[in-house]
Design brief:
By secondary structure, the chain is α/β, with parallel strands linked by helices. The chain contains 10 helices and 10 strands.
């Protein structure tokens, strides 16, 4: 019998981005339920990103911390009629590296062993002295990476490429799900999914079902969950979808 047979798992990734995780869950025997806790919207202003795109060749490094940042950057470049060709590219993990390959047809120059901002900052520290670095990210994000690179001697320019918002239809979908057939587990793939799900629950007048397994993709997401009063039941050994499903499988074995 598959390890997650009978498990109903809520996937909170943005619309159109939960299919890979859903496929992995289904392969493990689970029933994935896709209700996005995050929607992707344009930034409040394109000014910073447009200026960065125009001056891209002046940067020694271009950093992406999410696939969403890559996709938003590439889409804006197309809108402006710019063919981006950065000198060196660094990403936070394999999903972002895959987005770079799809968007730019090239490999990245640097990816840390652990897929978190702390490891990316450490991996780039040797390159940071005197370097000009462009960091493309969401409108609201941790400042750990730019601060660490600044201390290492880099000049860091931040360009906001998108905003995380709460999808309009998700509160009603969540109400129906929790009242009819509550999930056995909920997956959290970023701090934003935790923050937005908490807001969704409040908007829908709901609380987490008793005994639900809360599965975190990594330590940054786990920390955000704890700040919101959601203690992770399991945490992925590495910040990938495969390891997140493996963590759920371990939780199912203990039940």
């Amino acid at each position: 019998m598959p390890p997650l047979s009978g498990f109903r798992v809520l996937v909170t990734r943005p619309a159109g981005q939960g299919s890979k995780l859903a496929e992995l869950l289904a392969a493990a025997g689970a029933t994935p339920i896709l209700i996005p806790a995050i929607g992707i919207a344009p930034p409040a202003s394109w000014c910073a990103l447009d200026a960065a795109l125009t001056a891209l060749r002046t940067f020694d490094w271009l950093i992406f911390t999410s696939a969403n940042a890559v996709n938003a950057f590439a889409a804006r470049a197309r809108t402006l009629g710019i063919s981006p060709n950065p000198t060196k590219l660094a990403v936070i993990g394999p999903a972002t590296a895959q987005a770079v390959r799809a968007a730019f047809g090239r490999e990245v120059d640097l990816m840390p062993e652990q897929f978190v901002a702390e490891s990316l900052a450490a991996a780039l520290s040797a390159e940071a002295g005197g370097a000009s670095i462009l960091l493309v990210r969401a409108a609201v994000a941790r400042d750990l990476l730019p601060q660490a690179l600044g201390r290492a001697g880099a000049t860091v320019t931040i360009a906001e490429a998108y905003r995380n918002v709460i999808p309009d239809g998700s509160p009603a979908e969540l109400q129906e799900l929790f009242r009819a057939h509550p999930p056995h587990a909920i997956t959290f793939t970023s701090a934003s999914t935790a923050q937005n799900l908490s807001a969704l629950l409040e908007a829908a007048g709901l609380r987490l079902p008793d005994g639900v397994v809360l599965a975190s993709i990594g330590p940054v997401t786990s920390a955000a969950m704890r700040e919101l009063g959601m203690e992770p039941t399991v945490e992925a050994a590495q910040a990938t979808m495969v390891e997140l499903v493996a963590a759920l499988e371990r939780a199912a074995e203990r039940q």
